[in-house]
Amino acid sequence: MNFKVDVEMTPEELRKVLGLPDVESFQKEMMSKIQERMDAGVDGYDPLTLFQPYMASGLGSMDAIQKMLLNMMSTYTNSSKSSDKNK
Question: Cα separation of 49 and 56, whole Å?
């Protein structure tokens, strides 16, 4: 049996339904502080240095996702082959 449910709600409404905290003001405050430091030329706040940790972890995450998908596909392939032998 398949069924489909469409729900229309804003991101704020979804956040409230899931019980997630509202971090919009915190995010704006942090981004303004980062912008001020970048504009002032404080050491360590150039764009490449600032975003380098996120870029490195992003590639690692992509590798983990690829491994997970490969594992899922090989498991499915192995289970379908064994079910074909049982027929």
Answer: 11
